[in-house]
Amino acid sequence: MVLLDGKKISQDIKDELKEEVSKITQDGKRPPHLVAILVGDNPASQTYVKGKMRSCEYVGYSSTLMRLPSTISQEALLKKVETYNQDPDVDGIIVQMPLPDHITPQEITQKIRPGKDVDGFHPLNVGLMTLNFPCLMPATPSGILELLHRYNIPTKGKHCVVVGRSRIVGRPTSILMSRGGNPGEATVTICHINTPPEELKRICPQADILIVAVGKPDLITADMVKEGAVVIDVGINRVPSPETRSGYRLKGDVEFETVSQKASHITPVPGGVGPMTVAMLLRNTLNAYNQNLATVGEIIPE
């Protein structure tokens, strides 16, 4: 069994980006600039954003963390986003999810200019991705494909089962795995919340590549995995643990201890897909920077 080490691969990507940024600044140009907007004081969100800011510092990006109260109105938040949309020195914008209940995430996502949407959530970027055109790709699905690529895992003609259909992970991952390219060219089956349990147990063992992103700890057990399958666990679940200082530990959607005995490759949780998401966010920021410098003064459609 090969452990798909997202922590190591993400560090490799950061080192590559750091080298590219060093060349940019040595030429007298400004570094890429990422803005993160954090609404409220959700502890997990604060941790995630701080990690992203540290990664920006490591690779040499400029970064801005805009903290806003949970009481901010949707209209005021949209105005903040628009301010950064119009700033030529800002290359990437992320609004950390989740947002307070009175704010509609889709409204905020659609407000971010597609060329600065480094999360890859804007409908225009999703549409371009679907048609296999260059775009800012969804970070987590991109991270999954990058892992498959760097570990030289063949996908062409393989049966890929994606468990979960979220617009952030499951659905775009299914599209990327089925479209042209490498990784890609797979036969894809999607299971989701309305897939009966007996069907899930029937379909999952057919997978050459099993990608799980539902947020249910230990949903996938060893009897649901084919011998030699590649297993990508996107789930990050907090479960009670008296053995840790925090009182909880992180667990994936896959029962790692037993499934790892059957899989040919598997991601750990933590240390698998999570670090890859941040790495691909950073790569998107550099891509947006290069695009931004080429289009300053031009009209970029909303």
Topology record:
Elements: E1 2-3, H1 6-26, E2 33-39, H2 43-59, E3 62-68, H3 74-85, E4 92-95, H4 105-111, H5 123-130, H6 139-150, E5 159-163, H7 170-178, E6 187-191, H8 197-203, E7 209-212, E8 230-233, E9 237-240, E10 248-251, H9 256-259, E11 265-266, H10 273-295
Parallel strand pairs: 1-11, 2-3, 2-4, 5-6, 5-7, 7-8, 8-11
Antiparallel strand pairs: 9-10
Question: How would you sum up this structure in a few lines?
Answer:
This protein has two domains: 28-112 and 278-302, Rossmann fold (3-Layer(aba) Sandwich); 139-271, 3-Layer(aba) Sandwich (Rossmann fold).
Q: Would you write up a description of this structure?
A:
The protein has helices at residues 6-26, 43-59, 74-85, 105-111, 123-130, 139-150, 170-178, 197-203, 256-259, 273-295, and strands at residues 2-3, 33-39, 62-68, 92-95, 159-163, 187-191, 209-212, 230-233, 237-240, 248-251, 265-266. It has 302 residues and is an alpha/beta fold. The protein folds into two domains: 28-112 and 278-302, Leucine Dehydrogenase, chain A, domain 1 (Rossmann fold, 3-Layer(aba) Sandwich); 139-271, NAD(P)-binding Rossmann-like Domain (Rossmann fold, 3-Layer(aba) Sandwich), CATH 3.40.50. The chain has a six-stranded parallel β-sheet, with helices on one face. Strands 3-2-4 form a three-stranded parallel β-sheet, sandwiched between helices. A hairpin with a 7-residue loop joins strand 9 and strand 10. The chain is globular.
